[in-house]
UniProtKB/TrEMBL annotation:
Coiled coil in keyword set: yes
Coiled coil: 126-167
Top-level taxonomic group: Bacteria
InterPro entries the record matches: Metal_resp_DNA-bind_regulator (IPR052509), Tscrpt_reg_PadR_N (IPR005149), WH-like_DNA-bd_sf (IPR036388), WH_DNA-bd_sf (IPR036390)
Domain Transcription regulator PadR N-terminal: 12-94
Protein name: PadR family transcriptional regulator
Keyword set, alphabetical order: Coiled coil
Source organism of this protein record: Streptomyces termitum
Renumbered residue ranges of the record's region Disordered: 182-226
Regions of compositional bias (Basic and acidic residues) in chain numbering: 182-191
Length: 226
Protein backbone atom coordinates (compact mmCIF):
# COMPACT_ATOMS: atom_id res chain seq x y z
CA UNK A 1 0.00 0.00 0.00
CA UNK A 2 1.34 3.41 -0.95
CA UNK A 3 1.58 6.12 1.68
CA UNK A 4 -1.01 8.22 -0.16
CA UNK A 5 -3.59 5.42 -0.34
CA UNK A 6 -2.92 4.57 3.29
CA UNK A 7 -3.74 8.15 4.33
CA UNK A 8 -6.94 8.08 2.26
CA UNK A 9 -8.06 4.80 3.83
CA UNK A 10 -7.38 6.22 7.29
CA UNK A 11 -9.42 9.35 6.52
CA UNK A 12 -12.33 7.38 5.04
CA UNK A 13 -12.50 5.10 8.07
CA UNK A 14 -12.36 8.11 10.38
CA UNK A 15 -15.21 9.90 8.63
CA UNK A 16 -17.37 6.79 8.50
CA UNK A 17 -16.75 6.25 12.21
CA UNK A 18 -18.78 9.44 12.69
CA UNK A 19 -21.69 8.27 10.52
CA UNK A 20 -22.48 6.19 7.39
CA UNK A 21 -22.22 8.15 4.15
CA UNK A 22 -22.73 7.97 0.40
CA UNK A 23 -19.67 8.19 -1.80
CA UNK A 24 -20.50 11.77 -2.80
CA UNK A 25 -20.83 12.76 0.86
CA UNK A 26 -17.46 11.22 1.62
CA UNK A 27 -15.82 13.04 -1.27
CA UNK A 28 -17.33 16.34 -0.15
CA UNK A 29 -16.12 15.87 3.44
CA UNK A 30 -12.65 14.86 2.27
CA UNK A 31 -12.46 17.91 0.01
CA UNK A 32 -13.77 20.45 2.50
CA UNK A 33 -12.61 19.12 5.88
CA UNK A 34 -9.25 17.63 4.98
CA UNK A 35 -7.21 19.99 2.82
CA UNK A 36 -4.80 17.30 1.65
CA UNK A 37 -7.64 15.79 -0.43
CA UNK A 38 -8.71 18.98 -2.20
CA UNK A 39 -7.81 17.61 -5.64
CA UNK A 40 -8.86 13.99 -5.79
CA UNK A 41 -11.62 12.29 -7.75
CA UNK A 42 -14.16 9.50 -7.52
CA UNK A 43 -11.67 7.49 -9.56
CA UNK A 44 -9.45 7.57 -6.48
CA UNK A 45 -12.16 7.21 -3.85
CA UNK A 46 -14.11 4.23 -5.17
CA UNK A 47 -11.14 1.83 -5.51
CA UNK A 48 -10.30 2.76 -1.90
CA UNK A 49 -13.86 1.97 -0.79
CA UNK A 50 -13.77 -1.30 -2.71
CA UNK A 51 -10.59 -2.30 -0.90
CA UNK A 52 -12.05 -1.44 2.50
CA UNK A 53 -15.18 -3.48 1.74
CA UNK A 54 -13.05 -6.43 0.61
CA UNK A 55 -11.08 -6.24 3.86
CA UNK A 56 -14.30 -6.43 5.86
CA UNK A 57 -13.92 -2.93 7.31
CA UNK A 58 -16.93 -1.48 5.47
CA UNK A 59 -20.25 -2.79 4.26
CA UNK A 60 -22.37 -1.45 1.44
CA UNK A 61 -26.04 -0.75 2.07
CA UNK A 62 -28.76 0.67 -0.19
CA UNK A 63 -29.82 4.18 0.72
CA UNK A 64 -33.39 5.23 1.46
CA UNK A 65 -35.61 6.37 -1.40
CA UNK A 66 -35.06 10.04 -0.57
CA UNK A 67 -31.30 9.52 -0.21
CA UNK A 68 -31.16 7.69 -3.53
CA UNK A 69 -32.98 10.52 -5.31
CA UNK A 70 -30.61 13.11 -3.87
CA UNK A 71 -27.53 11.00 -4.57
CA UNK A 72 -28.60 10.36 -8.15
CA UNK A 73 -28.97 14.07 -8.82
CA UNK A 74 -25.54 14.84 -7.38
CA UNK A 75 -23.26 11.98 -8.23
CA UNK A 76 -24.88 9.34 -10.42
CA UNK A 77 -25.93 5.77 -9.77
CA UNK A 78 -22.91 4.62 -7.79
CA UNK A 79 -23.54 7.25 -5.08
CA UNK A 80 -26.78 5.44 -4.07
CA UNK A 81 -24.70 3.04 -1.98
CA UNK A 82 -24.28 3.92 1.69
CA UNK A 83 -20.99 2.87 3.28
CA UNK A 84 -21.05 1.83 6.92
CA UNK A 85 -18.14 0.97 9.21
CA UNK A 86 -18.17 -2.60 10.53
CA UNK A 87 -17.07 -3.67 14.00
CA UNK A 88 -13.82 -4.90 12.45
CA UNK A 89 -13.44 -1.53 10.72
CA UNK A 90 -13.88 0.33 13.99
CA UNK A 91 -11.28 -1.89 15.64
CA UNK A 92 -8.88 -1.37 12.74
CA UNK A 93 -9.34 2.39 12.90
CA UNK A 94 -8.63 2.33 16.64
CA UNK A 95 -5.35 0.55 15.90
CA UNK A 96 -4.46 3.16 13.29
CA UNK A 97 -5.28 5.94 15.75
CA UNK A 98 -2.87 4.46 18.27
CA UNK A 99 0.10 4.73 15.89
CA UNK A 100 2.38 7.63 16.73
CA UNK A 101 5.55 6.74 14.82
CA UNK A 102 7.49 8.72 12.20
CA UNK A 103 4.89 8.31 9.44
CA UNK A 104 2.42 10.27 11.57
CA UNK A 105 4.82 13.23 11.63
CA UNK A 106 5.04 13.69 7.85
CA UNK A 107 3.21 16.55 6.18
CA UNK A 108 0.20 14.82 4.61
CA UNK A 109 -0.18 12.10 7.22
CA UNK A 110 0.06 14.60 10.07
CA UNK A 111 -2.73 16.71 8.56
CA UNK A 112 -5.00 13.66 8.40
CA UNK A 113 -4.06 12.53 11.90
CA UNK A 114 -4.67 16.00 13.33
CA UNK A 115 -8.14 16.10 11.76
CA UNK A 116 -9.09 13.13 13.96
CA UNK A 117 -7.39 14.24 17.17
CA UNK A 118 -10.83 14.51 18.77
CA UNK A 119 -11.03 10.70 18.52
CA UNK A 120 -7.42 10.11 19.58
CA UNK A 121 -6.18 9.33 23.08
CA UNK A 122 -4.35 12.15 24.80
CA UNK A 123 -0.98 10.39 25.17
CA UNK A 124 -1.01 9.49 21.46
CA UNK A 125 -1.82 13.09 20.54
CA UNK A 126 1.15 14.21 22.61
CA UNK A 127 3.53 11.77 20.93
CA UNK A 128 2.37 12.80 17.46
CA UNK A 129 2.65 16.52 18.25
CA UNK A 130 6.08 16.16 19.80
CA UNK A 131 7.25 13.99 16.92
CA UNK A 132 5.97 16.52 14.39
CA UNK A 133 7.72 19.33 16.22
CA UNK A 134 10.97 17.38 16.27
CA UNK A 135 10.67 16.67 12.53
CA UNK A 136 10.09 20.34 11.74
CA UNK A 137 12.94 21.49 13.97
CA UNK A 138 15.25 19.15 12.04
CA UNK A 139 13.90 20.55 8.77
CA UNK A 140 14.41 24.09 9.99
CA UNK A 141 18.04 23.45 10.89
CA UNK A 142 18.70 22.03 7.43
CA UNK A 143 17.00 25.00 5.79
CA UNK A 144 19.09 27.45 7.81
CA UNK A 145 22.31 25.59 7.01
CA UNK A 146 21.44 25.49 3.32
CA UNK A 147 20.63 29.19 3.27
CA UNK A 148 23.90 30.05 5.00
CA UNK A 149 25.85 28.08 2.37
CA UNK A 150 24.06 29.46 -0.67
CA UNK A 151 23.02 32.98 0.38
CA UNK A 152 25.71 34.72 -1.70
CA UNK A 153 24.72 32.83 -4.86
CA UNK A 154 20.97 33.54 -4.66
CA UNK A 155 19.15 36.41 -6.32
CA UNK A 156 16.77 38.51 -4.23
CA UNK A 157 13.63 36.64 -5.24
CA UNK A 158 15.02 33.19 -4.59
CA UNK A 159 16.37 34.40 -1.27
CA UNK A 160 12.97 35.78 -0.33
CA UNK A 161 11.34 32.47 -1.24
CA UNK A 162 13.80 30.64 1.01
CA UNK A 163 13.02 33.00 3.87
CA UNK A 164 9.29 32.57 3.32
CA UNK A 165 9.65 28.80 3.59
CA UNK A 166 11.62 29.11 6.80
CA UNK A 167 9.08 31.48 8.31
CA UNK A 168 6.29 29.04 7.48
CA UNK A 169 8.07 26.23 9.30
CA UNK A 170 8.85 28.52 12.25
CA UNK A 171 5.15 29.46 12.50
CA UNK A 172 4.12 25.82 12.60
CA UNK A 173 6.70 25.07 15.29
CA UNK A 174 5.27 27.90 17.41
CA UNK A 175 1.75 26.57 16.80
CA UNK A 176 2.84 23.07 17.84
CA UNK A 177 4.44 24.48 20.99
CA UNK A 178 1.08 26.05 21.90
CA UNK A 179 -0.79 22.83 21.26
CA UNK A 180 1.67 20.77 23.30
CA UNK A 181 1.47 23.19 26.23
CA UNK A 182 -2.34 23.12 26.05
CA UNK A 183 -2.36 19.31 26.06
CA UNK A 184 -0.05 19.28 29.07
CA UNK A 185 -2.16 21.86 30.89
CA UNK A 186 -5.34 19.90 30.20
CA UNK A 187 -3.77 16.70 31.47
CA UNK A 188 -2.54 18.40 34.63
CA UNK A 189 -5.98 19.87 35.32
CA UNK A 190 -7.68 16.50 34.93
CA UNK A 191 -5.40 14.50 37.21
CA UNK A 192 -3.65 14.77 40.52
CA UNK A 193 0.07 14.05 40.96
CA UNK A 194 -0.51 10.30 41.24
CA UNK A 195 -3.63 9.91 39.12
CA UNK A 196 -3.42 9.23 35.37
CA UNK A 197 -5.66 11.38 33.22
CA UNK A 198 -8.77 9.59 31.91
CA UNK A 199 -8.88 8.77 28.23
CA UNK A 200 -11.25 10.99 26.29
CA UNK A 201 -10.97 9.89 22.68
CA UNK A 202 -14.72 9.25 22.42
CA UNK A 203 -15.74 12.51 24.08
CA UNK A 204 -14.14 14.76 21.47
CA UNK A 205 -12.41 16.81 24.16
CA UNK A 206 -9.04 18.20 23.20
CA UNK A 207 -7.73 19.23 26.58
CA UNK A 208 -8.24 22.93 25.90
CA UNK A 209 -6.83 23.97 22.54
CA UNK A 210 -5.29 27.43 22.49
CA UNK A 211 -7.78 30.06 21.41
CA UNK A 212 -6.27 33.36 20.31
CA UNK A 213 -8.58 36.01 18.97
CA UNK A 214 -7.43 37.23 15.59
CA UNK A 215 -4.41 34.89 15.38
CA UNK A 216 -3.87 32.73 12.34
CA UNK A 217 -2.76 29.16 12.73
CA UNK A 218 -0.77 27.50 9.99
CA UNK A 219 -2.53 24.88 7.90
CA UNK A 220 -0.64 21.59 8.53
CA UNK A 221 -1.20 20.76 4.86
CA UNK A 222 0.17 24.09 3.61
CA UNK A 223 2.75 23.37 0.95
CA UNK A 224 4.91 26.25 2.17
CA UNK A 225 5.56 24.36 5.39
CA UNK A 226 6.95 21.32 3.60
Amino acid sequence: MSRRSGILEFAVLGLLRESPMHGYELRKRLNTSLGIFRAFSYGTLYPCLKTLVANGWLIEEPGSASEEALASSLAGRRAKIVYRLTTAGKEHFEVLLSHAGPDAWEDEHFAARFAFFGQTERDVRMRVLEGRRSRLEERLEKMRASLARTRERLDDYTLELQRHGMESVEREVRWLNELIESERAGRDQRSGPDTPAPLDHDSGETGGLPRHGGSTRPDPSDDTAK
